[in-house]
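Let's sit down with a protein and look at its sequence and fold side by side. Go ahead whenever you are ready, and we will take it from there.
>
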Amino acid sequence: MGIHERYRPEKKSTPAAIALRLVVAALIVSACIRLFLFETVVLRGPEMLPGAARGDVLLLNRFATGIRLPLFNNVSLFGFYTPETGDLAVIKHPWRAWSGVAEFFDTCTASLFGLTGNGELRLVRVMAREGQKIRIDASGIVHVGGTKLDRQKSGTLSLHNRAAGGDEILRRQIVRRMLVSEDSIKGKPMPDLTLPLWREGKWEVAQSEGESADSSMRTFPLPVTNDAQAATWARRWLANTVLQSDDATVALLHERDNGTGPALVRDASGNLWFRLDDSTLEPLIRIESGLAWLVVPRGMIFVLNDMRDALDDSRTWGPVYEKTITGIPMLRIWPMGRFDSLD
Protein backbone atom coordinates (compact mmCIF):
# COMPACT_ATOMS: atom_id res chain seq x y z
CA MET A 1 0.00 0.00 0.00
CA GLY A 2 1.47 3.35 -1.00
CA ILE A 3 1.97 6.08 1.57
CA HIS A 4 -0.52 8.35 -0.20
CA GLU A 5 -3.26 5.68 -0.09
CA ARG A 6 -2.53 4.85 3.56
CA TYR A 7 -2.81 8.41 4.76
CA ARG A 8 -5.48 9.64 2.34
CA PRO A 9 -7.75 12.06 4.21
CA GLU A 10 -11.46 11.21 4.51
CA LYS A 11 -13.93 13.12 2.39
CA LYS A 12 -15.95 15.61 4.40
CA SER A 13 -19.71 15.73 3.93
CA THR A 14 -21.02 19.01 2.67
CA PRO A 15 -23.84 20.79 4.51
CA ALA A 16 -26.15 20.03 1.58
CA ALA A 17 -25.41 16.29 1.79
CA ILE A 18 -26.00 16.26 5.55
CA ALA A 19 -29.30 18.10 5.13
CA LEU A 20 -30.40 15.66 2.41
CA ARG A 21 -29.67 12.68 4.65
CA LEU A 22 -31.63 14.22 7.50
CA VAL A 23 -34.60 14.89 5.22
CA VAL A 24 -34.58 11.33 3.83
CA ALA A 25 -34.31 9.87 7.34
CA ALA A 26 -37.19 12.06 8.55
CA LEU A 27 -39.37 10.96 5.62
CA ILE A 28 -38.64 7.29 6.27
CA VAL A 29 -39.49 7.66 9.97
CA SER A 30 -42.68 9.58 9.13
CA ALA A 31 -43.79 6.95 6.60
CA CYS A 32 -43.12 4.13 9.09
CA ILE A 33 -45.12 5.90 11.79
CA ARG A 34 -48.05 6.39 9.40
CA LEU A 35 -47.88 2.81 8.14
CA PHE A 36 -47.47 0.98 11.44
CA LEU A 37 -48.27 3.21 14.43
CA PHE A 38 -50.35 6.38 14.09
CA GLU A 39 -52.01 8.38 11.33
CA THR A 40 -54.19 11.48 11.05
CA VAL A 41 -57.51 11.50 9.18
CA VAL A 42 -59.56 14.52 8.11
CA LEU A 43 -63.31 13.89 8.10
CA ARG A 44 -64.88 14.75 4.74
CA GLY A 45 -68.60 14.69 5.52
CA PRO A 46 -71.29 15.00 8.21
CA GLU A 47 -71.94 11.25 8.54
CA MET A 48 -70.77 11.03 12.17
CA LEU A 49 -72.58 14.06 13.56
CA PRO A 50 -73.12 15.01 16.32
CA GLY A 51 -69.91 13.50 17.72
CA ALA A 52 -67.57 14.35 14.83
CA ALA A 53 -68.00 17.04 12.18
CA ARG A 54 -66.63 17.79 8.71
CA GLY A 55 -63.05 19.06 8.97
CA ASP A 56 -62.27 17.39 12.30
CA VAL A 57 -58.81 15.84 12.38
CA LEU A 58 -58.55 12.49 14.18
CA LEU A 59 -55.49 10.66 15.42
CA LEU A 60 -55.73 6.94 14.61
CA ASN A 61 -54.13 3.96 16.28
CA ARG A 62 -52.92 1.86 13.33
CA PHE A 63 -51.60 -1.16 15.25
CA ALA A 64 -54.45 -1.96 17.67
CA THR A 65 -56.22 -4.26 15.20
CA GLY A 66 -52.96 -5.59 13.74
CA ILE A 67 -49.77 -4.30 12.13
CA ARG A 68 -50.41 -4.06 8.40
CA LEU A 69 -47.69 -5.22 6.03
CA PRO A 70 -46.70 -2.69 3.33
CA LEU A 71 -47.63 -3.60 -0.26
CA PHE A 72 -49.92 -6.45 0.89
CA ASN A 73 -53.60 -5.57 0.83
CA ASN A 74 -55.43 -6.16 4.13
CA VAL A 75 -52.72 -8.38 5.65
CA SER A 76 -52.15 -7.70 9.35
CA LEU A 77 -50.26 -9.28 12.24
CA PHE A 78 -50.33 -9.18 16.05
CA GLY A 79 -53.68 -7.48 16.55
CA PHE A 80 -54.81 -7.17 20.18
CA TYR A 81 -58.06 -5.18 19.90
CA THR A 82 -61.39 -6.38 18.54
CA PRO A 83 -64.09 -3.69 18.04
CA GLU A 84 -67.40 -4.51 19.69
CA THR A 85 -70.91 -3.07 19.38
CA GLY A 86 -70.73 0.71 19.70
CA ASP A 87 -66.99 1.07 19.05
CA LEU A 88 -65.69 3.52 16.46
CA ALA A 89 -63.41 2.43 13.62
CA VAL A 90 -61.99 3.88 10.42
CA ILE A 91 -62.40 1.61 7.41
CA LYS A 92 -61.49 1.68 3.74
CA HIS A 93 -64.51 2.31 1.54
CA PRO A 94 -65.57 -1.28 0.73
CA TRP A 95 -66.45 -0.43 -2.89
CA ARG A 96 -63.38 1.71 -3.58
CA ALA A 97 -60.72 0.17 -1.34
CA TRP A 98 -57.12 0.67 -2.41
CA SER A 99 -54.64 -2.09 -3.06
CA GLY A 100 -51.77 -2.49 -0.64
CA VAL A 101 -49.39 -0.98 -3.22
CA ALA A 102 -51.58 2.12 -3.72
CA GLU A 103 -51.99 2.58 0.05
CA PHE A 104 -48.23 2.29 0.59
CA PHE A 105 -47.36 4.94 -2.00
CA ASP A 106 -50.16 7.22 -0.81
CA THR A 107 -48.75 7.01 2.72
CA CYS A 108 -45.25 7.82 1.44
CA THR A 109 -46.61 10.78 -0.56
CA ALA A 110 -48.51 12.02 2.48
CA SER A 111 -45.32 11.82 4.54
CA LEU A 112 -43.34 13.65 1.85
CA PHE A 113 -45.72 16.60 1.54
CA GLY A 114 -47.28 16.56 5.02
CA LEU A 115 -50.71 15.70 3.63
CA THR A 116 -53.41 13.25 4.67
CA GLY A 117 -54.32 11.23 1.59
CA ASN A 118 -57.38 9.48 2.97
CA GLY A 119 -60.28 10.42 0.71
CA GLU A 120 -61.50 6.81 0.63
CA LEU A 121 -61.58 6.30 4.40
CA ARG A 122 -64.78 6.35 6.47
CA LEU A 123 -65.35 6.78 10.19
CA VAL A 124 -68.13 4.38 11.22
CA ARG A 125 -69.56 2.69 14.30
CA VAL A 126 -69.39 -1.09 14.59
CA MET A 127 -72.84 -2.49 15.40
CA ALA A 128 -72.50 -6.25 14.95
CA ARG A 129 -69.76 -8.82 14.40
CA GLU A 130 -69.62 -12.14 12.57
CA GLY A 131 -72.33 -14.59 13.57
CA GLN A 132 -74.50 -11.91 15.22
CA LYS A 133 -78.00 -11.07 14.00
CA ILE A 134 -79.02 -7.46 13.44
CA ARG A 135 -82.13 -5.65 12.27
CA ILE A 136 -83.40 -2.08 12.22
CA ASP A 137 -87.13 -1.60 12.72
CA ALA A 138 -89.31 0.93 10.91
CA SER A 139 -88.71 3.61 13.58
CA GLY A 140 -84.95 3.25 13.27
CA ILE A 141 -84.30 1.33 16.50
CA VAL A 142 -81.42 -1.12 16.22
CA HIS A 143 -81.70 -4.69 17.52
CA VAL A 144 -78.58 -6.84 17.87
CA GLY A 145 -79.45 -10.45 18.61
CA GLY A 146 -82.01 -10.37 21.39
CA THR A 147 -80.90 -6.94 22.63
CA LYS A 148 -82.75 -3.75 21.79
CA LEU A 149 -80.54 -0.66 21.93
CA ASP A 150 -82.63 1.66 24.09
CA ARG A 151 -82.57 5.36 23.31
CA GLN A 152 -83.80 8.66 24.70
CA LYS A 153 -84.24 12.08 23.13
CA SER A 154 -81.33 14.42 23.73
CA GLY A 155 -81.78 17.77 21.97
CA THR A 156 -81.46 18.66 18.30
CA LEU A 157 -78.90 18.94 15.52
CA SER A 158 -79.29 21.78 12.98
CA LEU A 159 -77.61 22.06 9.57
CA HIS A 160 -77.71 25.57 8.09
CA ASN A 161 -76.57 26.49 4.58
CA ARG A 162 -76.14 30.05 3.33
CA ALA A 163 -74.79 31.50 0.07
CA ALA A 164 -71.29 32.91 0.68
CA GLY A 165 -70.66 34.46 -2.74
CA GLY A 166 -69.72 32.90 -6.04
CA ASP A 167 -70.31 29.17 -6.08
CA GLU A 168 -69.58 28.68 -2.37
CA ILE A 169 -71.92 28.16 0.56
CA LEU A 170 -71.34 28.58 4.28
CA ARG A 171 -72.35 25.44 6.13
CA ARG A 172 -73.00 25.55 9.87
CA GLN A 173 -73.57 22.56 12.13
CA ILE A 174 -75.23 23.37 15.46
CA VAL A 175 -75.70 20.85 18.28
CA ARG A 176 -77.91 22.00 21.17
CA ARG A 177 -77.47 25.64 20.15
CA MET A 178 -73.67 25.29 20.14
CA LEU A 179 -71.82 25.87 16.86
CA VAL A 180 -69.58 22.83 16.33
CA SER A 181 -68.55 23.40 12.72
CA GLU A 182 -68.53 26.22 10.17
CA ASP A 183 -66.85 25.91 6.79
CA SER A 184 -67.15 27.11 3.22
CA ILE A 185 -67.68 24.51 0.51
CA LYS A 186 -68.57 24.64 -3.16
CA GLY A 187 -72.13 23.91 -4.17
CA LYS A 188 -75.65 25.24 -4.02
CA PRO A 189 -77.44 26.13 -0.77
CA MET A 190 -79.69 23.38 0.54
CA PRO A 191 -82.74 23.71 2.79
CA ASP A 192 -82.01 23.96 6.50
CA LEU A 193 -82.38 20.66 8.31
CA THR A 194 -83.15 19.99 11.97
CA LEU A 195 -82.82 16.44 13.30
CA PRO A 196 -83.54 15.09 16.78
CA LEU A 197 -80.63 13.62 18.74
CA TRP A 198 -81.02 10.29 20.50
CA ARG A 199 -78.91 8.71 23.21
CA GLU A 200 -78.47 5.16 21.97
CA GLY A 201 -76.46 3.08 24.40
CA LYS A 202 -73.45 5.21 25.33
CA TRP A 203 -73.39 7.32 22.17
CA GLU A 204 -75.64 9.78 20.39
CA VAL A 205 -77.22 9.51 16.97
CA ALA A 206 -79.07 11.99 14.76
CA GLN A 207 -82.06 10.73 12.83
CA SER A 208 -85.33 11.90 11.30
CA GLU A 209 -88.15 11.55 13.74
CA GLY A 210 -91.00 9.12 13.19
CA GLU A 211 -91.93 7.17 10.11
CA SER A 212 -92.01 8.76 6.66
CA ALA A 213 -92.45 7.73 3.06
CA ASP A 214 -88.74 6.92 2.75
CA SER A 215 -88.50 5.08 6.07
CA SER A 216 -88.01 1.67 4.46
CA MET A 217 -85.24 3.07 2.27
CA ARG A 218 -83.58 4.79 5.22
CA THR A 219 -83.48 1.60 7.25
CA PHE A 220 -83.05 -0.76 4.29
CA PRO A 221 -82.28 -3.65 4.20
CA LEU A 222 -83.69 -4.22 7.67
CA PRO A 223 -86.59 -4.71 7.96
CA VAL A 224 -86.75 -6.41 4.57
CA THR A 225 -90.05 -5.18 3.18
CA ASN A 226 -90.31 -7.88 0.53
CA ASP A 227 -88.34 -10.68 -1.12
CA ALA A 228 -87.56 -8.63 -4.23
CA GLN A 229 -85.90 -5.84 -2.23
CA ALA A 230 -83.95 -8.37 -0.17
CA ALA A 231 -82.67 -10.15 -3.27
CA THR A 232 -81.75 -6.89 -5.04
CA TRP A 233 -79.81 -5.62 -2.04
CA ALA A 234 -78.10 -8.98 -1.48
CA ARG A 235 -76.99 -9.29 -5.11
CA ARG A 236 -75.47 -5.81 -5.03
CA TRP A 237 -73.71 -6.64 -1.74
CA LEU A 238 -72.29 -9.89 -3.09
CA ALA A 239 -71.07 -8.26 -6.31
CA ASN A 240 -69.70 -4.94 -5.01
CA THR A 241 -68.62 -5.62 -1.43
CA VAL A 242 -67.59 -9.29 -1.56
CA LEU A 243 -66.49 -9.82 -5.18
CA GLN A 244 -65.33 -6.19 -5.62
CA SER A 245 -66.87 -5.92 -9.10
CA ASP A 246 -70.16 -4.30 -10.09
CA ASP A 247 -70.04 -6.41 -13.27
CA ALA A 248 -70.02 -9.72 -11.37
CA THR A 249 -72.79 -12.13 -12.28
CA VAL A 250 -74.75 -13.36 -9.26
CA ALA A 251 -77.43 -16.00 -9.81
CA LEU A 252 -80.63 -16.04 -7.74
CA LEU A 253 -81.65 -19.63 -7.09
CA HIS A 254 -84.34 -21.48 -5.18
CA GLU A 255 -83.57 -24.27 -2.73
CA ARG A 256 -83.70 -27.09 -5.24
CA ASP A 257 -82.06 -25.28 -8.15
CA ASN A 258 -78.62 -26.27 -9.37
CA GLY A 259 -76.01 -23.87 -10.64
CA THR A 260 -72.37 -22.86 -10.54
CA GLY A 261 -70.55 -19.69 -9.59
CA PRO A 262 -71.52 -16.96 -7.08
CA ALA A 263 -75.17 -17.23 -6.13
CA LEU A 264 -77.93 -16.40 -3.67
CA VAL A 265 -80.27 -19.18 -2.62
CA ARG A 266 -83.76 -18.38 -1.29
CA ASP A 267 -86.38 -20.64 0.26
CA ALA A 268 -90.15 -20.24 0.39
CA SER A 269 -90.01 -18.43 3.76
CA GLY A 270 -87.69 -15.69 2.47
CA ASN A 271 -84.48 -16.95 4.09
CA LEU A 272 -81.40 -16.13 2.02
CA TRP A 273 -78.04 -17.86 1.79
CA PHE A 274 -75.04 -16.98 -0.35
CA ARG A 275 -72.07 -18.80 -1.78
CA LEU A 276 -68.86 -17.93 -3.60
CA ASP A 277 -68.10 -20.13 -6.59
CA ASP A 278 -69.13 -23.64 -5.50
CA SER A 279 -68.42 -23.18 -1.80
CA THR A 280 -70.70 -24.07 1.10
CA LEU A 281 -73.84 -21.95 1.59
CA GLU A 282 -73.66 -19.33 4.35
CA PRO A 283 -76.75 -17.69 5.91
CA LEU A 284 -77.37 -14.01 5.13
CA ILE A 285 -81.02 -13.20 5.93
CA ARG A 286 -83.01 -15.26 8.40
CA ILE A 287 -86.76 -14.94 8.99
CA GLU A 288 -87.76 -15.58 12.61
CA SER A 289 -91.33 -15.06 13.90
CA GLY A 290 -92.08 -12.87 10.90
CA LEU A 291 -89.03 -10.63 11.44
CA ALA A 292 -86.11 -10.43 9.02
CA TRP A 293 -82.64 -10.55 10.58
CA LEU A 294 -79.34 -10.09 8.81
CA VAL A 295 -76.71 -12.61 9.89
CA VAL A 296 -73.23 -11.08 9.71
CA PRO A 297 -71.00 -13.48 7.70
CA ARG A 298 -67.61 -14.78 8.80
CA GLY A 299 -64.83 -12.22 8.91
CA MET A 300 -67.26 -9.31 8.54
CA ILE A 301 -68.83 -6.50 10.59
CA PHE A 302 -72.00 -4.42 10.22
CA VAL A 303 -71.38 -0.67 10.55
CA LEU A 304 -73.62 2.40 10.80
CA ASN A 305 -73.23 6.17 10.67
CA ASP A 306 -74.22 8.20 13.73
CA MET A 307 -76.19 10.48 11.42
CA ARG A 308 -78.64 7.83 10.35
CA ASP A 309 -80.07 9.83 7.45
CA ALA A 310 -76.66 9.48 5.75
CA LEU A 311 -76.91 6.12 3.99
CA ASP A 312 -73.21 5.54 3.22
CA ASP A 313 -72.82 2.57 5.56
CA SER A 314 -73.81 -1.11 5.83
CA ARG A 315 -77.42 -0.33 4.93
CA THR A 316 -76.03 0.31 1.43
CA TRP A 317 -72.79 -1.68 1.40
CA GLY A 318 -74.00 -4.61 3.45
CA PRO A 319 -71.60 -6.21 5.96
CA VAL A 320 -67.98 -5.27 5.26
CA TYR A 321 -64.80 -7.25 5.85
CA GLU A 322 -63.26 -6.66 9.27
CA LYS A 323 -59.85 -6.49 7.56
CA THR A 324 -60.92 -3.21 5.92
CA ILE A 325 -60.45 -1.54 9.33
CA THR A 326 -57.39 0.67 8.94
CA GLY A 327 -57.31 2.30 12.38
CA ILE A 328 -59.07 3.03 15.67
CA PRO A 329 -59.68 6.74 16.50
CA MET A 330 -57.92 7.83 19.68
CA LEU A 331 -58.26 11.62 19.83
CA ARG A 332 -59.73 14.58 17.97
CA ILE A 333 -56.68 16.84 17.60
CA TRP A 334 -58.32 19.63 15.56
CA PRO A 335 -59.99 22.05 16.06
CA MET A 336 -58.19 22.78 19.31
CA GLY A 337 -61.40 23.98 20.95
CA ARG A 338 -62.80 20.44 20.63
CA PHE A 339 -59.64 18.50 21.53
CA ASP A 340 -60.90 15.32 23.21
CA SER A 341 -61.44 11.60 22.83
CA LEU A 342 -64.39 10.28 20.82
CA ASP A 343 -67.20 8.05 22.11
Notes: The chain has a mean pLDDT of 81. The chain has three domains: 14-147+213-219+297-343, 153-206, 221-295.
